[in-house]
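Appendix B: complex inputs.
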Amino acid sequence: EAGVAQSPRYKIIEKRQSVAFWCNPISGHATLYWYQQILGQGPKLLIQFQNNGVVDDSQLPKDRFSAERLKGVDSTLKIQPAKLEDSAVYLCASSLDRGWKTQYFGPGTRLLVL
Amino acid sequence: DQQVKQNSPSLSVQEGRISILNCDYTNSMFDYFLWYKKYPAEGPTFLISISSIKDKNEDGRFTVFLNKSAKHLSLHIVPSQPGDSAVYFCAASVEKSGGGADGLTFGKGTHLIIQP
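Resulting structure:
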């Protein structure tokens, strides 16, 4: 069974530029999560999707971050414009359904904002 | 306000001995707890979990203990092996009314180093 796929693996941009990350969850997984992991911290939930609907985006900085999962499969997370403090690893995870508490993580996208 | 705390940033254990990683939480609504293991440049990998209705769950060399009254859980690895060297994250979730689970709340992690 293929795992959660993410791209790109690394990205370096200058502040005020835009960036987008892509995630393909495990086949059949209805629930998809985006986490932000700043160096030295644990992952922090940004947004949770159930199929193509948003379940929880309470910790998403909506003035600059946006995410979508249009067809209920792949998802993109965008930052526009980026700030220095957005430098982090962005992790995508999926689970079979909302009632399934074990989440499976992708390798992450490491973002450096200069 | 950290709801899940791992107070030991690192832990060094000799190969073959027991590794004990600790985790404390403050939110009494948490009802499911998980441990994840993370190698450099990889995403976290699920290791073991425990529901709040249990006080122990065992899977091979890994055992998780939950003390609800103390809001404390621990992960025991016996015997410790070199491949266990990684960062271990404690995570917790709350079951929402109507079913379903929240996203996970993670601790900062403990870097376990197994010495030969």
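Chain B is about 0% helix and 50% strand.
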